[in-house]
Amino acid sequence: MQHADLYHRLPEPLEEAHDGEPARWCVVQTHLHSESLAERHLLAQNFRTYLPKRRRTVRHARIVRTVSSAYFDCYLFVSLVQQQSWYPINSTVGVRKIVMSKGMPIPAPYGVVESLISATDDDGIFHPDILLRPGQRIRILDGPFSDQLGILDHVGSAGAVRILLDIMNRSIPITIDRDRISIVS
């Protein structure tokens, strides 16, 4: 599996454990400039990771080149199920520690990492300008409400959004997959 292939699957909802407990994204602190190294070693241990990246221009000895680096310096995300053993993470090459409270990893709030993933392209580059936020004007791209305009009301954690459509002078809420909408500028 190529590294870029991982990002094709990231927007899918997180898998559930055998007891129905959903996986949660947790924050891992890495050593300085070791985000990609830590990600490779976590993937080798079958942890599911998400490392948002950015492109930047680097100049050195009159040579200018574009490189990708971590969007959040010294941090990446790892998906964990509550009963999953997270102990190996702290001893992984490139990892400083998993962010914890009271001896347990702290999960990110529902929808936060999923929103970041939805704004990440196939190369793993994060585009913060396309994040969905409640109150934005939205156009529905296909389906029975195709080309209708609405207001984004809620962004769900599993890829669905709730939009308020003005139909006959009434705000009607509909839930739709986020891949079927676009932001109206």
Task: Describe what this molecule looks like in 3D.
It contains four helices and 13 strands. The model is unreliable at 1-18 (pLDDT under 50). The chain starts with a helix and ends with a strand. The chain is flat and about 60 Å long. It has 185 residues and is of the alpha+beta class.
Task: Describe what is shown at a glance.
This protein is α+β, with helices and mostly antiparallel strands. It is built from four helices and 13 strands. It is flat and about 60 Å long.
Would you spell out the secondary-structure blueprint of this structure?
Blueprint: H1 3-9, E1 24-30, H2 35-44, E2 48-50, E3 53-60, E4 63-70, E5 75-80, H3 87-90, E6 95-98, E7 100-101, E8 104-105, H4 112-118, E9 137-140, E10 149-155, E11 160-167, E12 170-177, E13 181-183
Antiparallel strand pairs: 1-5, 1-6, 2-5, 3-4, 7-8, 9-10, 9-13, 10-11, 11-12
β-strand percent reads 35-45%
| Count of extended strands | 13
Shape: flat
Give the strand order of the largest sheet, numbering strands 1, 2, ... along the chain: 12-11-10-9-13
Average pLDDT rating: 84
What's the gyration radius in Å?
19 Å
The helicity comes to 10-25%
Termini distance? 37 Å
Report the major sheet: 5 strands, antiparallel
